[in-house]
Each structure stands twice: as structure tokens, then as C-alpha cells.
Amino acid sequence: MNRTFQIGLLALAGYSGYKLIQLNRLATKLVYRVKGASAIATLRPLYAALVLKVDITNPTGGKVKVTNTFGTISIGGNVVGNFSTGPYEITKQGTTSIDIKTVLKGLASAQAIYAGLTTNKWPVVTIKQTDLINGIYPNVSTTVVDLAKFKPQALTK
Predict the structure, then answer these.
(1) Report field, pTM of the whole predicted structure over 0.85
(2) Residue 87 CA to chain centroid, in angstroms?
(3) How do beta strands 153-155 and 31-42 pair?
């Protein structure tokens, strides 16, 4: 192989590694907070959804483009729904709000939401999410949320 090509390839690998390290540092400094919740439920057809309002705080000076945030929501260890937000941008040194809407699968998950709406006994949910930052860097995190803290409001579909 040509020596100049080898040096160029090595420089490209070094620069790529440097950029990934920068993305990792930035991603680990983002702070996620669930700020609210609402529930959507209908009997005919049987439909239940959970909408979590999440604030993402960026304490760094860099702007972050998130290609997608996707993951699962679990109640009692059972996956009850999947979500995907699509692209959004996190501002420099500020807070960005996103809504995570999950259509709940299965009768048990719908019953948990109906019970919350009727008896005010809300489940604890676990959010496992992956943020695809700049389309290349996956940042994985898990958050446990006690919905009783937010007393989700019922929305009409």
C-alpha cells in the first residue's frame, strides 16, 4: 500500500475516533427529566396510549442533532409498548421538550392505564431508550418513572 495513503487512512481513523469521543462526552452530559404524563383511552375500539413529556437539558455549549429516539416502555418488567420520536434538535445550553407517545399493546397494559384513570392507582414504568445522535452515535439510557407522581390527565382521542 502507498505510504501516503496509509498515513491519510490513519489520520482519518484518528479524526473519526476523536469525533466519537466528543459525541460520547456530550451525550453523557445530557440530562433527561420526565415533566408530565397524560393518558389516552377509549373503549370502542379498545385503545390506550401514554404520552410522557420529557425535558432534555444540555449543559454544554454544543448543539445536538438527534436523528431518532426510540425504545420501549415496560410495566412490571413486561414490555407494553414501543416508541419512536423522529428527529429533533437539542439547543445549546438550554432545555428542549419532547413528547414520547406510546400506544400500549395488550389488554394488561390497557388495564393498567384504565385503572390509573379510574382509581388513580398508577403503575411505575421503565423507559429504555436509545438516542441516535448525529445519526451515528447511539446513547442508551434507562429511566424509571412513578406515574402516580404526575397523576396523568385523561386526553380524548
Answers:
(1) no
(2) 12
(3) parallel
